[in-house]
Amino acid sequence: MVAMHPVIDQLRAIVGSQGILYEQDELFVYECDGFPIAKGIPLAVIFPTSTQQVADCVKVLNQHNLQIVPRGSGTGLAGGAVVYDRGVMVSLSRMNKIESVDLDNRVAVVQAGVRNLALSDSIADTGWRFSPDPSSQRASSIGGNVSTNAGGINTLKHGVTVCHILGLEYVLPDGEICTSRGEPICDGIGPDLTSLICGSEGTLAIVTRIWCRLVVNPKYFRTVYAVFDSTYDACKTVSDVIASGIVPTSMEMMDAGMIQAVESAFHFGFPSDVAAMLLLEVDGIDQVLDEELASIVQLARDNNAGDIQQCSDPVRRAELWTARKKAFGAVGRMSHSYCTQDACIPRSKLPEAMEYVAKLSEKYDITITNVFHAGDGNIHPIMLFDEDDPDQVQQVLLLSKELLEYCVDIGGTITGEHGVGVEKLHLMDKMFNRNTLDLFLDIKKTFDPDQRINDAKLIPSDKTTIELLKPIAANVPGGAL
Amino acid sequence: MSEAVTDNNVVQINNAENPNALHALVQQCVKEDLPIIDYGFAHTKLGHPAPGKHVKLQQHGQIIEHYERDLTVRVAAGATFGHIQAQLQPTNQFLPIDADADLTLGEVINHNVYGPLRVKYGAARELLLGMRCIDGIGRDIHAGGRTVKNVSGYDLTRFMVGSLGQMGVVYEATIRTYAIPQHILRLMLRVNDPAWLDTHLSNWLLDVSAPSTLALAYEDNHWTLQIAYFGTATGCNIQYRALKSFWESPVPEPHTVQLDQYLDESRKYRAWRRQVSTLVKIIVPPARTGSTCLDLVSSTRINAALHFDVLPVHGCILVGGDLPAAQAITLDKQINQIIAQVGGVRQWHARPPGTESIDPFGPVQPDWPILKKLKDTMDPHALLNRGRFLKTESSPN
């Protein structure tokens, strides 16, 4: 029998016996997030219920020189919440209280583990909502959304997570509790530290409390889907809509493989013999939405759209968006394993980029299907493979690398909303010059001199090397998109 | 490149705007221990007096590349808003930030300049996509890019917004543009009690009549709401009719204006800020904006001399006037008392002589110690805008 690490008792004293897992068979579920290629078993997982408990645990973990990995709901898609080197995972899932909702100031204060949709659901009858809407929003936590600066379907018009965060409370790597702009105010003084911590993937501090900006929940919508015989035409429509100056609420695209997967799984009535489908929506003043939509429909027709279905019926609308949000779940019926890429490119480059994706699919003999935030230029090629086949895994990694390098070359980025995690670390030197990478590491060390919090995630570390391919067999689906 | 020096404290005026020239300037200033003060063209009314001998950096520049179909534009930080808007206009696009024509983009980023357009379009934090700067040891830093979503690396782009030039010299930025609205309706509404907004603004924002831009001004003892609707003619007229139903008293007829006319009128309304000796920006919880304004008018007893530009949606109050030192100090005390009660921060932009006792920034925020450490990391010699905000060990003054 292996002796229990002495830190376990100390942590248990802080979080209670119900607040810690350390038996091997209990830990397997925490070995990875939604990126199934990166895996690592933590020494323990703790479930603090307050900021003070997080701070106390961090101090104890520092005494033992252990790595600390924060985790929200584990829906990340880049391996950002995987524990290496037998570190300890700090799960924020039990910090799930909505502490206050202040509609006069249009702000809600929540603990980091509150699920994204739980906040909007809790204020559904007020006319307000929390805008960020990643497809994982039923499961993902707001702390996790902050950590990756999550996007979603509505970000085209309403912006990514950081645009909706007024302030943060966090625990620094030495256990100190700090706040940035922790009031219902819209600005502070000086550099915007809240923005720096947003999207830092838990590498600078552990976010424990969030001041969320609430926005008007639109009352009136028009939703339309248009089908195309070519992916190029669908992408050209997206590019033309953006160039026209119209800002839809959302503009999403599915290719033939994805339409068929969704249709066979959920039977929404989509045509199965088309190359691509655009699903888009406008919101605003009821009486002018038809006018706005007409311009978009004309652009679609100009690009050879086939069937175009419009709807303002809330039931049908809900069905359409359910189809979009369930798309990733449908992929599970197509493949044993899958993972997705998350490049973001200038919208005008979408047509050529999607042609390039198709070429790579052929070159590496990996099936790719696509469902993505077309209006943002945020592509999500989903690669279907068998994770028990090392050759296929290798092909997926090589394909991903070539694709992301191409996207950077055409003015894009390696990640639009999923984060770098461990998955894209090797591409950071393609994305950034040496000076910038050095500064990133300097910033990391300013917060975390011993590089103990989620080291070697997001930015390359000079202390920790992560072996991406660990030979642990498990079938983990790709999570939400 | 150097220009004639007119200020005794300025030992050199430098127009470096490309990374190589800025790198050389930083190296020279490290060697000579000379602070670099990053000036825009209206810096004297947006910043603070420069301490001691320094190099005055005054960048120029223009649009580098306009990605017209992507509605983004890459701009040298020294480009003025007048230049940027003039270049964008023929493509039916504009940069939706309320900035005077002679302000540079770098200055707008450093000072987080915004106005009523923030209601519809957000501020620099929401609009900036990428940024390039030289840090205090001469490193050429590239953050963000030209895509509308980007989460690779730390978000240094947004971190720089409002940084008062403390962390690096921004020399280039990529920013979103928007289509020029087809139609703009503008109107003024006299309000007797600005505190009404504190309790009713949220409901107004939920209504069809919610404004696209909104500001509250105070002049000659009267409060006036400046309202505008942006959109199609049909949409603007529907919103205006809805306003007549929503508002409890008669609503005047609106004026149809073009965007440049709208921007020009906005500029005229804020022109007083450049002319006064006293100017302070206060940020309070939005639902305390109106009551804070009333408190300041009633308690300072200097109301006749005060101007206000207020953004109720964001809790931002710019207050100022030509005040003697004693009244400016009284105003500061009153602001501090209000902030102690309701929360918020305040930042002095201009102070009359004799008010050196006023700390320009306050109250002290819990994250300033970390910001000071980051300042030490990015500017270890404290060259950049030394002494203006973050006083580090290298820069105690």
Task: Tell me about this structure.
The complex is a heterodimer of chains A (481) and B (397). Chain A is α+β, with helices and mostly antiparallel strands and 481 residues long. Chain A is 33% helix and 18% strand. In chain A, β5 (98-102) and β6 form a beta hairpin. In chain A, α1 runs antiparallel to α3 (51-63), α8 crosses α10 and α13 (350-364) runs antiparallel to α14. In chain B, α12 (289-300) runs antiparallel to α13. Chain B is α+β, with helices and mostly antiparallel strands. Chain B contains 14 helices and 20 strands. In chain B, the strands form four sheets. Chain B has a nine-stranded antiparallel β-sheet with strand order 15-12-14-13-17-18-16-19-20. Chain B has a five-stranded antiparallel β-sheet with strand order 5-6-10-8-9. The two termini of chain B are 29 Å apart. At the A-B interface, β9, α7, α8, α10 and α16 of A face β9, α7, β11, α8 and α9 of B.
Provide the CATH architecture of the largest domain in chain B.
2-Layer Sandwich
**Amino- and carboxy-terminal Cα gap of chain B:** 29 Å
Q: Terminal Cα separation of chain A, in Å?
A: 41 Å
Class by SSE composition of chain A:
alpha+beta
Q: Number of DSSP helices of chain A?
A: 16
CATH topology of the largest domain in chain B: Uridine Diphospho-n-acetylenolpyruvylglucosamine Reductase, domain 3
Determine the most extensive contact between two protein chains: A-B, 89 and 82 residues
Q: Which value, in Å, is the CA radius of gyration of chain A?
A: 22 Å
> Which outline of chain B best applies?
globular
The helical percent of chain B reads 25-40%
User: Strand order across the biggest sheet of chain B?
Assistant: 15-12-14-13-17-18-16-19-20
Mean model confidence by pLDDT of chain B? 91
**Estimated share of beta-strand residues of chain B:** 25-35%
Shape of chain A: globular
Structural class, from secondary structure content of chain B?
alpha+beta
Low-confidence stretches of chain A: 470-481
What is the alpha-carbon Rg of chain B in Å?
21 Å
